[in-house]
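Format notes (please read before filing issues)

Several people have asked whether sequences and structure tokens are stored in separate files. They are not. Every record keeps both together, in the order shown below: the sequence lines, then the token lines. Line labels are part of the format and must not be stripped during preprocessing.
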Amino acid sequence: METAQYGPLPAETETFPDNPSPLPPGAHRVAVVDLGSNSIRLLLAQVDAQGRVQVLNCVKSMVKLGEGAFENDALQPAAMDRTIAVLKTFARTCRMYGVEQIAAVATASVREAPNGRAFVERAKLETGVRFNVISGPEEARLVSIGVEAGLPLSDHPRVFMDIGGGSTEFAVSRNGEILAAESLHVGCVRLADRFFRKENGKVPRSLFEEVQNYVREKSFLPFERVRASRPAEMIASSGTAGALGAMAEAMRHGSSDDQGGRYVLLDEVRAISERLCGTTPAERLRLPGMSARRVDVIIPGAAIFLTAMEELGFDRVEITERGLRDGVLLQHLENSGLIPGKAREREQKINAVKGFARTFSADLFHAKKVSGFVLQLFDQARSESLVELDPVWRDILFYAAWLQETGIAISYHNLAEHSAYIVANSELLGFTEYETQQIAAVIFRSRYQGREEPGYIALSSNDWKEAALAGLLLKVAEGLDKSHRGAVTDFNLEARGRQVVMGVRADSESPIERENLTRIAKTMTSRLGRTFSVVWSAS
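Then the structure lines:
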């Protein structure tokens, strides 16, 4: 998870008190910004030297960034302005708390809108907050991490549901092991735009049933895959779940506290849906758990919730206040080394790329061989000062090695281009959109060094420059096993002034590798500005 550095903010007349509490020795303060299609949330937390995490504050604003976005295929100016205004307030709040790092994620409305990237750039320029745009399955995974962290261990799988404005996520997990991760293109704002734009009063029951049928039609296969994981318990997060829980609690006891109920039953959701459809917006506003900005989206949200319970076969759903922001926080703290657990994320990513490679019929023996070579090559090239690449590119190269032949499912001809396109448009579990773009760029540049950047990979010019260097290393690593026989057993890279010598050891004659590396040596000489040569020996 990337962090953001604060940029210059516009002059403000609002003032804040001093830092609410001094920072203890060895402690760090971090923030999470979760930008959904309906609401934006800020979570402020402190982690001490022993790795104990304390939440300091949570703030939420229903900016409805996705309002009109799905209907018009673009984020709307008014919605973007509302969101930027709240982000400026969030940034000032972070400064007040002495926050050192911000982990910010954006979901469905931003990832789908053609002007989503432009909005991300605007947010960075005007507020200093840099967003990672995450895929739907990655959003589902992070939700499960955040919710499951607050639950006791279980010997059975649980399914986690999060109803957002633009999409609904499901993840099936058993004690941190992700068994399924699905993202449905149905969310309360998206469905409100599609079905309820002209509804200003009571909603006909027939329309509610039409929405349910639409959800079933769009979610048939994802629901099948969730059922196949055999979850025994269902847990729902999000504002929709909280509002339904509050109404269910009021039905049982005549009132509800601000936190809402802790569970809902299937018959309760049916009754609540009936009641919601039979009320006007003004009447809905007086219901427990309701706010002015949720009035227009609660009915489509209830339709999604009820359909999921019916299709997945659950009579009861637990309600939690935890969600995506908690998962982002834990992931960020792990990645930053502030709490233990990064090994789990890396294991998830490795499993994801191996499974993806298998799906596209890549040669797994060759991929494993090349992935080992490219890590060794990266370490030696940096040690010999041949390339100046951030250590993050080491992992990117490892994943690229596993995925660089996925395009074989299309054709061997133009293999790197096919592979790069597949990866750039994938939703690899555990990866941000930015990381998949980096991987795709490295694969592309491993074959096409001088060609213009393809439009399906969106990276900055500096990213492309670094991807070109990383692509050279992948090109060499792949060349060491060009025949897919595993003949090369080891190599050593050594810089000698204006010369670079690669000593290669093989356990058999390797004419294909020899010929390939001879050609690659010319490219390396040109790109490195040093004479690159290969010396062969027997193992």
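For reference, the curators noted about this record: The CA atoms of residues 124 and 130 lie 5 Å apart. The longest helix spans residues 205-228.
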